[in-house]
């Protein structure tokens, strides 16, 4: 990580924290054991810790003292650990990577905390230090006669969430790389998925391509759904085989140095989209492209979502699936029968990155808005996903209460014919620029013609 940018990040946070009194600790988190083995789950340092320390060490603590500044306490391997997992990184090497002058072994954390006895302690990052202090080579805070100031902790955490919304150059470089790896995997799937292949097999090929291109891991559990499975929003791939005539929905991406991409494409198993598949695909694509075209600084994400909902409602009216005026349909949440999720979310150090909702804005309980994960005005440097979709979800469409409520708004006999259709989603990662937006995943084709051209390559000779 670029040392200058790390220092600048910490300086920005420090000044946004203002006339701060009292110490702050930001633990990275402890490794989680895998039951029945002597190994641990894949480790993700807490995002607040990683953002400010730039390191992914288990059981380490970034501490801040308004008088002396930042100190990183990092674990030093004991003999057992050296035998089983190898030596720990030397503290001076960590200091170089973290761009910090003070890096000490965690054994020194206790003394640092004792020196702050009687001051209000802010705890950010992982809270596992409260329950497993021994993992950080210290006794409990109670033993040390220290108390966490919960109110101050959440105020300081809110400052970090706000600062993390706009990505800096180092973060954007990592996100561009995650996007590149993810595009490569999707391209491979588009070029090689064939009838007879299982969803699981396609997942393995796709993820292998992410890894071959340098991804450290997948950014989230890969979604590969064929036929009706495409309507399950977070579908885990199964042994179901791809069938000619089906469409395949793949929502999967790689993660690079902690930063996620998040990409979805939908394509036919055969060489072409068939009638209604094409109609619905073109509608989702037009909706996605218009939302991207409207994404710019100052634009409220919630408005983008509602405009997309209206466009989908209008398209479904044209296709004879919905009936009525699009605006009324959206006000009554009828669009959400087919587009039940939000237009997208903030992206960065997590698939659903911090700070998606502006302070004071609570998620709505309206059916058409409750899964909207971003509610804020867009600003330069924000990265959001834009991912409209249309699905035929049995859990929604077979519900008698909804059938009654929307009796006259929906052509139910048409819907009944489409209950095994599955779903279509198109998702790109979008960076807000000073005068508009840049699609970080633009290298992955999405026009129906381009998708079909790639699908020709995949067909058996
Ligand atoms: Mn997404």
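-> sequence recovered:
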């Amino acid at each position: 990580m670029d040392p200058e940018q790390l220092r600048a990040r910490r300086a920005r946070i420090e000044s946004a924290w203002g006339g701060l009194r009292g110490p702050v600790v930001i633990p990275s988190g402890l490794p989680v054991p895998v039951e029945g083995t002597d190994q641990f789950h894949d480790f993700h340092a807490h995002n607040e810790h990683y953002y400010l320390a730039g390191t992914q060490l288990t059981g380490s603590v970034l501490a801040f003292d308004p008088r002396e500044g930042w100190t990183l306490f990092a674990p030093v391997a004991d003999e057992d650990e050296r035998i089983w997992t190898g030596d720990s990184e030397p503290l001076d090497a960590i200091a170089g990577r973290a761009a910090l002058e003070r890096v000490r072994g965690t054994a020194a954390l206790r003394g640092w905390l004792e020196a702050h006895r009687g001051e209000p302690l802010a705890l950010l990052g992982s809270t596992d230090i409260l329950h497993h202090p021994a993992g950080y080579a210290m006794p409990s805070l109670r033993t040390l006669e220290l108390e966490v100031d919960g109110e101050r902790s959440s105020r300081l955490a809110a400052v970090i969430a706000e600062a993390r919304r706009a990505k800096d150059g180092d973060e954007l470089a990592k996100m561009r790389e995650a996007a590149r790896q993810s595009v490569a995997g999707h391209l491979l799937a588009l070029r090689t998925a064939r009838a007879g292949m299982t969803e699981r097999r396609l997942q393995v090929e796709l993820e292998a391509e992410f890894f071959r291109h340098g991804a450290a891991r997948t950014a989230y559990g890969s979604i590969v759904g064929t036929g009706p499975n495409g309507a399950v929003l977070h579908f885990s791939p199964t042994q179901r085989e791809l069938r000619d005539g089906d469409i395949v929905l793949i929502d999967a991406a790689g993660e690079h140095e902690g930063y996620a991409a998040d990409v979805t494409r939908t394509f036919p198993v055969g060489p072409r989209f068939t009638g209604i598949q094409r109609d619905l695909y073109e509608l989702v694509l037009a909706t996605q492209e218009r939302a991207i075209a409207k994404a710019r600084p100052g634009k409220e994400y919630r408005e983008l979502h509602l405009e997309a909902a209206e466009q989908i409602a209008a398209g479904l009216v044209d296709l004879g699936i919905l009936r009525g005026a699009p605006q009324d349909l959206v006000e009554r949440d009828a669009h959400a029968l087919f587009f039940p999720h939000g237009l997208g979310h903030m992206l960065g150090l997590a698939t659903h990155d911090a700070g998606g909702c502006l302070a004071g804005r609570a998620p709505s309980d309206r059916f058409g808005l409750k899964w909207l994960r971003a509610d804020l005005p867009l600003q330069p440097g924000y990265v959001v996903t834009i991912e409209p979709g249309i699905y035929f979800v049995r859990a929604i469409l077979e519900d008698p209460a909804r059938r009654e409520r929307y009796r006259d708004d929906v052509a139910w006999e048409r819907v009944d014919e489409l209950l095994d259709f599955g779903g279509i989603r198109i998702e790109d990662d979008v960076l807000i620029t000073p005068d508009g937006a840049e699609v970080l995943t633009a290298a992955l084709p999405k026009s129906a013609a381009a998708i079909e051209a790639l699908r020709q390559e995949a067909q058996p000779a």
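The longest helix spans residues 169-192.
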